[in-house]
Amino acid sequence: MAKKQVAAVVKIQIPAGQASPAPPVGTALGPHGVAIMDFCRDYNAATEDRRGQVIPAEITIFEDRSFSFILKTPPTTYLIKKAAGIELAANNAGRETAGSITDAQVAEIAEIKMPDLNAIDLEGAKLQVAGTARSMGVEVSG
User: Fold this and answer.
1) What is the distance between the alpha carbons of residues 98 and 82, in angstroms, rounded to a whole number?
2) How far apart are CA 45 and CA 61, in angstroms?
3) Contact indicator for 69, 59 with CB cutoff of 8 Å
4) Coil vs helix vs strand at 87
5) Which one of 1, 72, 75, 85 has the minimum C-beta count within 10 Å?
6) Pairing assessment for the beta strands 99-102 and 67-71 based on DSSP bridges
7) Cis peptide leading into 24, omega within 30 of 0?
């Protein structure tokens, strides 16, 4: 059997279990001729158990207009805001603090994000998460 030719790869972030043909899904997949309702149904079924989280998907679209997708872990910024209990990051990250998280919360986020990070070990992942928190104006204590 011959391999299918890849026409495009689309990356999109959608709330889990809430994909609909409206933007951003429709505007991302429509130009490629993909059956948008089929993607929405498959995505919602795959993410139903993670409702309330934002789950990125990497959608591979083939020339015959079929597709496959890979689910990623939630964005680091989303996990940090959830752990700190804040809605928005600081406007001036170096000068103001939006909230704080503990070292244990950084380790927990790093474990969740480990499959998607380019870190060799958990310590490297923790440093990446702590750097993202600092750039958001979230203080890391502990």
Assistant:
1) 12
2) 19
3) yes
4) coil
5) 1
6) unpaired
7) yes
